[in-house]
Every structure is written in C-alpha cells, then in structure tokens.
Amino acid sequence: MFVGRQDTSGRLRYLGRSTPITGPLRRELAARLSPGGPDRPWSGRTFSSGV
Question: In 3D, which of 1, 3, 51 has the Cα closest to residue 26?
Fold first, then answer.
C-alpha cells in the first residue's frame, strides 16, 4: 500500500509504502478501500515504488 497526501498546491506527494501485507489483512483492507475515480487528483497517473 502506498501512502500520500496533497501538498499546499494540491499536488499528490508520495510519502512512503507499507511492508508487505498478508492475505488476511489484504482482504480486510480491500473491503474498506474503494478505487479512485476520475475526480481523484491521481487519475491518469502511474506510480513506481522505486524498486
């Protein structure tokens, strides 16, 4: 999972990522999260973990 926040100009900034998430926790998170829609600031962008 990636973590980010918007800066003062509204740009999404990458802050970090979590450690690998286990299967049971992954399913729990999936039930709580929703996909970003076209109104999200990261719509149409791709990200790399830097690996």
Answer: 1
Considering only CA atoms, which of 7, 13, 14 is closest in space to residue 50?
14
**Rounded-to-integer distance, Cα 36 and Cα 26, Å:** 17
Residues in the chain: 51
**Predicted local distance difference test score (pLDDT) of residue 50:** 56
**23, 27, 47 from 5: Cα distances, Å:** 26, 24, 14
Cα separation, 15 vs 27, in Å, equals 23
What is the C-alpha to C-alpha distance for residues 41 and 10, in angstroms, rounded to an integer?
A: 8
Question: What 3-state DSSP class applies to 10?
Answer: coil
Say what the pTM is: 0.42
